Each structure stands twice: as C-alpha cells, then as structure tokens.
C-alpha cells in the first residue's frame, strides 16, 4: 500500500475517533439514549437543566428517533436542534418548569419534496411552564401538535408557521399570558382545537391564513378579550364554538370561509360587539352545491349587546337563534329594540325578569306587560284609586253634614199641643202676664 492511502485511512480513523470521543447529549448528566436511539432526559434533581443543540459537544445524535424530556427545571432547544435528525418522529416535553424554544429550534423539513406521505413528527408538551416559543420555532413536516396543561408566557409572531401535512393542533387547558399577532401563520391542518384554559387576550390574526380542512373547535375557554379578525380561517367543514366564557368579543372576530355549518352554543359573553359574526361566510362551491349553510346561535348568555351584534352576511349563510339570554332586565323599550329580530327569529330571545329572578321570553313579556294600555296600567290604577277616594270623601262630607243638620233641628212642643219642626231656632220670649183680679 502506498503512503498516501495509509494517510487516508489514518485520517478517517482519526475522524471517527474524534466523533466517538466528543460527548453527545446521551452523555449528559441527566440524559441517556435507549436502544431505539431515543434521547431520554428524566431529571430527578430539582436544579437539572438540559440544553438541546444540533452540533458540538453534547449535541443530539443524528440517529435520534425521539426526544423525551421529563421533570427538568429548565430545558432549552437551541436553533436548528432537530433540522438534520431525519429519523426523528417524536418530541415530548413533560413536567418542566421552564421551557424555551428558540427560533427554528423545532424546524423539521428533511425531505426535499413536500409530500404528506413522508413521515412527520409529533410534538407533545404537557404540564410545563413555557417561557418562550420564539418566532418560527415550530416549522415543517409535523403531524400533530398537542400542547396541554401548560402555562405559556410568550408566544411570538409565526411561532407555528410553514407547517405541512398537519393533522391535529390541540391546545388544551393552557394558561396563556401573552400571545402576539400571527402566532399561527399560513399552513393547513385537518383539525384545530382550542379547549379549556384561560387566555387574557386573543390578538388579531392569532390564526392567520390557516386552512382548517375538517373541524375548528373552540370549547370551554375563558377569554378576556377576543380581537377583530382573531381567527382568519378558511375551509372548515364544521365550526363549533361552545361553552366559552368571553368578556369582550369584538366585531368580525371570526373571519372565516367555511365549508359547513357554524354553531355558537352555550357561551357566556359580556360584551358582544356589533358584527361579531359578520366575518363568517361560506365557500362558494359548497353553497352552490349544498345550499346556504347555517349559523346556529343556541343557548348563549350575553350582557351587553344590540341586535346589530347578531347581523350576519346573508349571501351564503342563514341564521337560527335558538335561545339567546339577554342578561338585561326586561323592559318594554328592550322589546321595542328587539322587535324586528323577534319577528324574523321564531326561536326564543329571553330577558331577565327581576320579579321572578329568571329569564322569560321577550314575546311573552311584551304580550303581558307592554302596549299602550298595559304600560300605563299602573297609572290607570292610581288614577282610579284617587278618583274613588275623592268620591268617598265627597259622600262622607255630605252624610256628615246631613247628620249635623238633623241634630240642629229642635223639636218644640207648643202649648197648643202641636209639634212644630223649625229649621230656625227662634227664641220666643214668653211674656207671662200676671192675671189681675181687677178684670
Ligand atoms: C422518569 O422517571 C419517573 C420515576 O423515576 C418515571 O415515573 C417516568 O415514567 C420517567 N419518565 C420517562 C420519560 O422515562
Ligand atoms: C407538573 O409538573 C410539576 C413540575 O413542574 C410537578 O411538580 C407536578 O407534579 C406535575 N403534575 C402532574 C400532574 O404531573
Ligand atoms: C353549558 O355551559 C355551562 C357552563 O357555562 C356548563 O355547566 C354546561 O354543562 C354546558 N352545557 C352543555 C350542554 O354543554
Ligand atoms: C365591556 O364590559 C365592561 C364591563 O364588564 C365594560 O366596562 C366595558 O365598557 C365594555 N366594553 C365594551 C366595548 O362594551
Ligand atoms: C344553557 O346555558 C346555561 C348557562 O350557560 C347552562 O346552565 C345550561 O346547561 C345550558 N343548556 C343547554 C341545554 O346547553
Ligand atoms: C358577504 O359574503 C360574500 C361572499 O360570501 C362577499 O363577497 C361579500 O363581500 C360579503 N359582504 C360583506 C358586506 O362583507
Ligand atoms: C349578568 O349580568 C350581571 C350584572 O349585570 C353579571 O353579574 C352576571 O355575571 C351576568 N351573567 C352572565 C351569565 O353573564
């Protein structure tokens, strides 16, 4: 063998030796790698910190099929951590006190051609405090994103963007502190679920140009403020917004082009702004084949609203109101305000009837309490009572006077034996003249 060949062999040997000597994350104090080449970091110590990086010492090995992290104090994903992990299928983070996902840290597009048949990854984050999900943090060929029971402090613009082949995005029971605009940007998913938890503010374009091809479901979420155009969504076959507690819902909040019906059910809204549902419309193809789709507003309780809060785009949409509790005391002015809508909606619109402490339907209230006569009923009653009192007073006056007059009349018996009734009391001075014997 020639010297040059020997040198080549030596170089290769040296190279592989260097690789095997450089520690990977498998050598980290808190991590190990199992037989399936999964990286498992199960931190039992309170202070345990783990950093996941794409290269250098303690890098994630390129053969990694899964990253599973449990119970650490702090976990950081550095940029491009998973970019070259072609075998990767699974990223799971649980019970971590501080999670930081840097820019492009979970960006994964190993296949040159975009094709949904290519395998995708699954990202699960459960019971963590997520300090930051940076811009473009999560990108590429992702099957499922399941984020549940977390406290999420910051979600930046484009946190979830340029995703392909997504089946499910589930955000369950999270407490969101700060969400910036366009957190979910420009991709398609089969289902989008926002379930439970609390959100201070859902900003404009929280979902921006997101195509949801099957189900859009927002359920049981407590939201303080939901801005205009929060959900810029196209194509869902079903939209369900139910059991939410929303303080302020701005106009045009749901800017959606659906391919099916929309149900807004059993929500409690404090302020429902004008045109809250006005941004919802139906895909032209669907409406021309299947007819207009229905916007069902069922069993919601709303405190501040006007009929204009419920206006909708009639082009390819019909509306049915099946129970709307106006959390306002019933008055006849209120029935006046809602008269038009009561005509077009056979379903019940209720108002709060304070006397009985429950909701009554507006038409029932109107029939029993409103109208010129009914409204003035009490005035008539009062006037009647006053008139009756005056009559009684007059009658009593005359009766008393007559009685008095009777008493005043004195019966005088005159010497001739006749009884005279005099209306006037004349004092007759009787002169008793002495009989003289002279006569
Ligand atoms: C971590 O360890 C705990 C107990 O030691 C165990 O219950 C848990 O399943 C482990 N997690 C992983 C991901 O192996
Ligand atoms: C959630 O994570 C914390 C640590 O951040 C842990 O103490 C707690 O037991 C976990 N809860 C559940 C239900 O696993
Ligand atoms: C309606 O919402 C209330 C809470 O606001 C909940 O208790 C109830 O179970 C919900 N009803 C249905 C049918 O989901
Ligand atoms: C929303 O409701 C609150 C009371 O809960 C009220 O102070 C506020 O003015 C309302 N905002 C709008 C826009 O109606
Ligand atoms: C209607 O909404 C009220 C108040 O949110 C709730 O208590 C009740 O269970 C709901 N009824 C149905 C049939 O969903
Ligand atoms: C109503 O929806 C149609 C399409 O469905 C759209 O062309 C039109 O601009 C909408 N109207 C308004 C006032 O937004
Ligand atoms: C109804 O309004 C009252 C005050 O106006 C408020 O305290 C109550 O929470 C409201 N109920 C609902 C279900 O919004």
From TrEMBL:
Signal peptide from the UniProt entry: 1-18
Q: Which residues form the Cyclic nucleotide-binding domain?
A: 251-279
Q: Which residues cross the membrane?
A: 377-400
**One of the record's GO cellular component terms:** plasma membrane
Q: Which UniProt keywords apply?
A: Leucine-rich repeat, Membrane, Repeat, Signal, Transmembrane, Transmembrane helix
Q: Does the keyword Membrane apply?
A: yes
What protein name is recorded for this chain? Cyclic nucleotide-binding domain-containing protein
Q: What is the lineage of its organism?
A: Eukaryota, Metazoa, Ecdysozoa, Arthropoda, Hexapoda
